[in-house]
Amino acid sequence: CFNRIIKLGGGHSNDTDKRNADSVIRKLFKAFDSNGNGIVDSRELASGISVLCSGSRDDKIQAAFALYDLNNDGFISLNEMTRYLTSVFRVLYEANKSTENQIGVPAAELGKITAEQAFLDCDLNHDGRLSYDEFKKWYLKSGSAF
Question: Residue 9: pLDDT above 50?
Answer without folding.
Answer: no
